């Protein structure tokens, strides 16, 4: 039997976030890093496969190309429904990539209607009247307005998405969602008659997402943050379970690599520094000046791993990030820091780190690729949206790794995550 659900995630932390919700709702999930070069010759032993791409901030044409390759792989693995996962803060620009990828997937699947909702109430992301809230404030008033690559300055998702697509975008509002699956399907049909191709859907609670999940049963393509995953597995009869989240025992040194510049990560770094633990701050301008900053970070880490976890970070407040971007250019600064942190991560693993926390979606993508990881087994949840994962290393040992989205996790995440791992895999 093939897989039920085939998922395409536009970044690596987002992929584990989605896989985490599917596992908790009872599906056995395999997460693949990038599209495998070989096709699925035999049936994949999982209920869902999540293919993690790094397509959120690449040129739209490249994102479309990678997503279509992922789609082809998932369809040949037997996927009955496709789930395009993007960020719960709808990270994108007028050039994409949410709109162009959605359109390309619709064309390839031969479908004329889909839904869009980044709602993730467990992490404070709610959609009301088409407007996205982050906690108590509109998206455009949240830290996301300062994001270095995808600054979000408009909270109205209908207009944000309309700017990225050639198709008409509509809204299924909370009054319809509250009525249940049948009402949502009825409204979808009405919008379709009006030639609306993508409907932004309100959701302010997990109950809304459960109703929406039931309504999109059989829809060839759904597009969403990870929240919709709460409501989908039940369509195939899966029930919530923790059994699928068992990981092998963890050991080895512990370290954190953080290239995230989000508000939550800034708090987590501060909390870690306050605890007096070893931390190395990585300065992008010194990397640009040609200093061997990765080497310095590794020398520091090596001296402190026995007292770990050790933190290596480039995390800064928005103003400091803007200064660096002003000097180097946003894309160049991002690339330089990602490359350096990826080198640090591989060096840490060479030095015996086997419990690794990575903060930031782009950063996680760079790290996971540099480590050559091809697949992750999803384990227990640390905080909403962030599970521990396990991956085999070439030397036969196991790396426990968690990929933390920038704005996820409690303030003490950089220490509590390791305590939880040791507890859960004891
Ligand atoms: N001090 C810095 N100055 C400039 N750019 C930085 C700095 N630190 C990190 N960056 C870059 O900013 C980007 C941060 O993106 P990343 O996705 O890793 O984190 P995030 O946006 O906070 O988290 P998420 O995408 O998971 O919400 C990366 O490209 C990173 O290399
Ligand atoms: O949806 C989210 O917020 C996260 O899974 C994510 O994609 C952040 O990079």
From TrEMBL:
Q: Does the keyword Kinase apply?
A: yes
Residue span, Four-carbon acid sugar kinase nucleotide binding domain: 255-414
Which stretches make up the Four-carbon acid sugar kinase N-terminal domain? 5-231
Lineage top rank: taxon:
Bacteria
Swiss-Prot/TrEMBL catalytic activity? 3-dehydro-L-erythronate + ATP = 3-dehydro-4-O-phospho-L-erythronate + ADP + H(+); 3-dehydro-D-erythronate + ATP = 3-dehydro-4-O-phospho-D-erythronate + ADP + H(+)
Its Gene Ontology molecular function terms? ATP binding; kinase activity
Q: Which Pfam families match?
A: NBD_C, SBD_N
Q: Where are the transmembrane segments?
A: none
Name the keywords, alphabetized: ATP-binding, Carbohydrate metabolism, Kinase, Nucleotide-binding, Transferase
The EC designation for this entry is 2.7.1.217
Q: Which InterPro entries match?
A: 4-carb_acid_sugar_kinase_N, 4-carb_acid_sugar_kinase_N_sf, NBD_C, NBD_C_sf, OtnK
Q: Is Lyase included in the keywords of this UniProt record?
A: no
Function per UniProt: Catalyzes the ATP-dependent phosphorylation of 3-oxo-tetronate to 3-oxo-tetronate 4-phosphate.
Write down the NCBIfam families for this protein, in alphabetical order: OxoTetrKin
Q: Which family does it belong to?
A: Belongs to the four-carbon acid sugar kinase family.
Query: Any idea what this protein is called?
Result: 3-oxo-tetronate kinase
Q: Which organism does this sequence originate in?
A: Streptomyces spinoverrucosus
What lineage, starting at the top, does this entry show?
Bacteria, Bacillati, Actinomycetota, Actinomycetes, Kitasatosporales
